[in-house]
Amino acid sequence: MIEFANLTKRYGKFAAVDNLTLSVKPQEAVALWGVNGAGKTTAIKCLLGLLRFDGQITVGGCDVRRQGRAARQLIGYVPQELAFYKEMTTVDMAQFYARLKGAPAARIAPVLAQVGLGEQGGKRVGALSGGMKQRLALALALLGDPPVLVMDEPTSNLDTAARSQLLHLLLEVKRGGKTIIFSSHRIEEV
Prior knowledge:
alpha/beta; four-stranded antiparallel sheet
């Protein structure tokens, strides 16, 4: 499903990622683990086609450089730093993302329910807790029903309880057939 072949990303003489080769099979979950600054986010940004790199990355057989749009359509992405329109409600935000992704509006309620936000539809995003915002980000990534979910440090700003809930939710998503790549600096999460 995802292939990294000799991925290298340099910033000047510094190699942020050096010769990474990794194969992720369909419906497999893989953690990119390492200390802060180890290159996890850089590898993810290369996967998303956001950075130039040496080597090759394919998603579902699509070369990230030559077929970037097709590759990105296979990916739902949750960034490390979340940015939402705080005045919008949870449902408004989901409707906005559904339109951007060409996803049917009928997917919104089931996806919000799947991540535990079914009862929070009328709540302003700015009033959500950190854990609920992370769940919303996951819901938005899943709206287009992509086969691949990529999450960059999804638990970094969560307390212990919210972290545990999110990791449990990711296991459910994986059981639903998604291929998952997530980064973490916490060994207990991988």
